[in-house]
Design a protein that fits this description.
Two copies of one chain form a homodimer. The first copy, chain A, has about 100 residues and is α+β, with helices and mostly antiparallel strands. Chain A has helices at about 15-40, 60-75, and strands at about 40-50, 55-60, 80-85, 95-100. The longest helix of chain A is centred in the first third of the chain and has 25 residues, at about 15-40. The radius of gyration of chain A is 17 Å and the shape is elongated. The first copy, chain A, binds a DNA duplex (17 and 17 nucleotides) through α1.
Chain lengths: ~100, ~100
Amino acid sequence: MVKGKIAIRKINCSKSRQVTFFKRRTGLMKKAKELSILCDAEIGVIIFSCTGKLYEYASSSMSSVIERYNKMKQDNQQQSITTEEIQVNAKDQVKTRMYSLN
Amino acid sequence: MVKGKIAIRKINCSKSRQVTFFKRRTGLMKKAKELSILCDAEIGVIIFSCTGKLYEYASSSMSSVIERYNKMKQDNQQQSITTEEIQVNAKDQVKTRMYSLN
DNA sequence: TACACTATTTATAATAG
DNA sequence: TCTATTATAAATAGTGT
């Protein structure tokens, strides 16, 4: 992505991986916060590092996000769910996102 | 941020907000996926749009992420939790992230 | 070991379709 | 409602301290 783009696959060097994890985790949290503010969305992000450490962001509170998520899932059980698969890029694994229909 | 940067506050125009929501949601999901691959992290992202639509990404499965989250929270109940507050930028609201200590 | 720098890639605002 | 284009802002990989 910068000064020589990197391939999206696991970074083997533990040191580099930690540095990248810090930078990108910070960036992801910032983006999540911006999106929640700009678009009035309720957002929860949960990250477990490869060492098992937990990092989280919630625009409201994580428990409220999880509750709402579970409730939505229950309500949608009798409805069909559309699963759309898109490629992040041609070589990479498939990224699956699920959209509820209501 | 581009062709005239925007302030991070709720976009009032519904049409613009929707377009921005689509773009940034896509970007956030991509970043989450990249981070999970690059750094071997388990990540879950839950987004409710302002119209109540649910969008989600999980590197493994959302239920496994939520389970692990709940378990971690239980285990940490007797430990102290550090709350660190950082500014996304000087004018904006405070963004709170919580780090577990173990 | 965590920041600071910066060249470069990536994300995206405005716009049109 | 979503996609495409493009100019520009933001993110970040590699490096230095």
